[in-house]
Please model this.
Amino acid sequence: MHTDVREYISLCRVKKGNITEAELARRTGQTPQNMNNKYKRNTFKISELEKVADAFGADLKISFIDRETGEPII
Model:
Protein backbone atom coordinates (compact mmCIF):
# COMPACT_ATOMS: atom_id res chain seq x y z
CA MET A 1 0.00 0.00 0.00
CA HIS A 2 1.49 3.33 -1.05
CA THR A 3 0.24 6.22 1.03
CA ASP A 4 1.75 9.65 0.65
CA VAL A 5 2.59 11.76 3.68
CA ARG A 6 -0.50 13.94 3.32
CA GLU A 7 -2.81 10.91 3.33
CA TYR A 8 -0.96 9.33 6.24
CA ILE A 9 -1.25 12.49 8.36
CA SER A 10 -4.95 12.69 7.53
CA LEU A 11 -5.46 9.08 8.64
CA CYS A 12 -3.59 9.80 11.87
CA ARG A 13 -5.68 12.90 12.50
CA VAL A 14 -8.83 10.77 12.32
CA LYS A 15 -7.40 7.99 14.46
CA LYS A 16 -6.27 10.44 17.15
CA GLY A 17 -9.78 11.83 17.64
CA ASN A 18 -10.62 13.72 14.46
CA ILE A 19 -8.03 16.44 15.02
CA THR A 20 -8.70 19.22 12.56
CA GLU A 21 -6.04 20.51 10.23
CA ALA A 22 -6.25 23.87 12.05
CA GLU A 23 -5.74 22.21 15.43
CA LEU A 24 -2.78 20.23 14.12
CA ALA A 25 -1.32 23.47 12.76
CA ARG A 26 -1.72 25.09 16.18
CA ARG A 27 -0.09 22.12 17.93
CA THR A 28 2.89 22.29 15.58
CA GLY A 29 3.34 26.05 15.81
CA GLN A 30 2.16 26.83 12.28
CA THR A 31 -0.68 28.85 10.88
CA PRO A 32 -3.60 26.92 9.41
CA GLN A 33 -2.80 28.51 6.03
CA ASN A 34 0.81 27.30 6.16
CA MET A 35 -0.32 23.78 7.11
CA ASN A 36 -2.88 23.81 4.31
CA ASN A 37 -0.18 24.82 1.80
CA LYS A 38 2.00 21.92 2.94
CA TYR A 39 -0.96 19.58 2.46
CA LYS A 40 -1.62 20.90 -1.04
CA ARG A 41 2.02 20.59 -2.13
CA ASN A 42 2.73 17.52 0.02
CA THR A 43 5.98 19.17 1.11
CA PHE A 44 6.85 18.32 4.69
CA LYS A 45 10.40 18.49 6.02
CA ILE A 46 11.55 15.81 8.44
CA SER A 47 11.73 18.41 11.20
CA GLU A 48 8.07 19.28 10.53
CA LEU A 49 7.07 15.63 10.57
CA GLU A 50 8.76 15.30 13.96
CA LYS A 51 6.53 18.13 15.23
CA VAL A 52 3.47 16.44 13.73
CA ALA A 53 4.41 13.16 15.41
CA ASP A 54 4.86 15.00 18.71
CA ALA A 55 1.43 16.61 18.27
CA PHE A 56 -0.01 13.09 17.95
CA GLY A 57 1.91 11.90 21.02
CA ALA A 58 3.98 9.64 18.79
CA ASP A 59 7.54 9.12 17.57
CA LEU A 60 8.53 9.50 13.93
CA LYS A 61 10.09 6.44 12.32
CA ILE A 62 11.39 6.51 8.76
CA SER A 63 12.57 3.34 7.00
CA PHE A 64 13.83 2.26 3.63
CA ILE A 65 11.95 -0.86 2.56
CA ASP A 66 13.45 -3.34 0.11
CA ARG A 67 11.13 -3.56 -2.90
CA GLU A 68 11.81 -7.24 -3.46
CA THR A 69 11.43 -8.51 0.09
CA GLY A 70 9.20 -5.85 1.61
CA GLU A 71 11.53 -5.80 4.64
CA PRO A 72 13.40 -2.82 6.10
CA ILE A 73 16.95 -2.60 4.75
CA ILE A 74 18.38 -2.00 8.22
